[in-house]
Specification:
single chain; 116 residues; alpha/beta; Transcription Regulator spoIIAA; five-stranded mixed sheet; 5 strands; 41% helix
Length: 116
């Protein structure tokens, strides 16, 4: 799986490409954790606009990052899911604890307090 990281203030934006499944989950988890530590970011946006498939391992990656950041005052947001991925996350109850945004830009604005 490919990922592109961008930084906006104290927000790491992780744009993921392809399938977030049990084959990719471990590397995604490690790469995100290392990037957050290296850049000193407190908040995380998952940009899922290019995700074509997700299984329970992908849900575990999201929940793991939430559990890691939340006690330290950090936040996680999810942006730009396909309808299929959004339905999977909704059925798993993810949106009861993590906010969803139509675009990564909206998520960044929310996390940096620059909403219009």
């Amino acid at each position: 799986m490919d990922m592109i990281f961008n930084i906006k203030g104290n927000v790491l934006i992780a744009e993921l490409f392809g399938e977030l499944d049990h084959h990719a989950a471990g590397q995604v988890r490690t790469d995100i954790d290392q990037a957050m530590e290296a850049y000193g970011t407190a908040n995380l946006v998952f940009d899922f606009s290019k995700i074509t498939f997700m299984d329970s391992s992908g849900i575990g990656v999201i929940l793991g990052r939430y559990r890691k950041l939340e006690p330290e005052g950090g936040k996680v947001a999810i942006a730009s899911c396909s309808l299929t991925v959004r339905n999977i996350l909704n059925m798993a109850g993810i949106f009861s604890i993590i906010d969803y945004f139509d675009t990564a830009e909206e998520a960044i604005a929310y996390l940096t307090g620059k909403e219009e």
